[in-house]
Amino acid sequence: MTEAGDFDDCLGCLVGPALDDLETGLRGVVGLTPAEAGALHEGAAAALLETVRRKVTRTLVLELNAARVTGRLTGADPAQRWAEFLALAARREYWDSLTEHYPTLLARVDVIVANRCAAALELATRFAADRDPALGELLAVTSGPATATVTAVRWRSCAAPTETPCTSRVRWRSIGPCRRCWPR
Predict the structure, then answer these.
(1) What does the alpha-carbon distance between residue 37 and residue 130 come to, in Å, rounded to a whole number?
(2) Residue 142's pLDDT is what?
(3) DSSP readout, 10-62?
(4) pLDDT (tens digit, 9 = 90+) per residue, 114-127?
(5) Average predicted confidence (pLDDT) for the chain
(6) Strands of the chain, DSSP E
(7) Which of 55, 82, 101, 140 could form a cystine bridge with 154, CB 3.0-4.6 A?
(8) Which distant-in-sequence residues (6+ apart) come within 8 Å of 143 by Cβ?
(9) Which has the higher per-residue pLDDT, 183 or 5?
(10) Are residues 42 and 143 in contact, defined by beta-carbon separation less than 8 angstroms?
C-alpha cells in the first residue's frame, strides 16, 4: 500500500531551492551557532515538507491514476509504473505542466513555501536576539504542519537534552529546560 510520504521525493523540486536559501539565511543570523542553524533548518524542512505533502497528495494521486489510464506510464507492472511516475513528478517541468488543469496549484504552493521559509528565518532571528544564554544550545525545533507554531524545543543545558513544549503565545525568554534540571 502506498503512503502519502511516498511522494516526498517528488516534492524536492518544490521545496529544495527555498530550503537552500533558508540554509544560507540561517548562516547569516548573528548569535546563532551552526548547530542551532542546522536544528532550525531541519525542523523547518520537516514541517514544510509535511505541509506541502498535505496540499498536493490528492492531486498527485489523481494524476497518477490519469497517467495510468491514459497510457503515459509504460512500466510492465505496478511497481515499474509507480517508479516511473515518481521520476516524472520529481521534475519541476511536471509541476509546471499541471497549471493547465490546476491553474493556481503551483502558485499557491510557491507562496506557502516562501512564507514558511520566511517565518523560519524570522523565528531564528528573534530566537538569537531574545535568548537567555544560560539555556545552552538549541538542539531541535518541532513545528506543527498546519501552522508555523513551534510545538517543542530541545535544549542542551541539563544533564540530558530536555523537551519544552511551547506555543506561539510564549516568548523565547520564558521557554527553558525542565525545572528539575535548571530551577528558575
Answers:
(1) 15
(2) 72
(3) HHHHHHHHHHHHHHHHHHT-TT--HHHHHHHHHHHHHHHHHHHHHHHHHHHHH
(4) 999 998 999 899 88
(5) 80
(6) 137-143, 150-156, 162-165
(7) 140
(8) 43, 44, 46, 47, 149, 150, 151
(9) 5
(10) no
Residue type, 76: A
Q: What is the pLDDT of residues 145-182, one digit of tens each?
A: 555 455 456 655 554 444 444 443 333 333 444 444 44
Spatial CA neighbour of 26 closest among 6, 12, 18: 18
Amino acid letter for position 146: A
Place of cell 540530558: 160
The letter for the amino acid at 103 is P
List the one residue out of 12, 43, 13, 47 whose CA is nearest residue 26.
Answer: 43
Give the cell for residue 104: 493556481
Listed in sequence order, the residues at least 6 apart from 46 whose beta carbon sits closer than 8 Å to its beta carbon are 142, 143
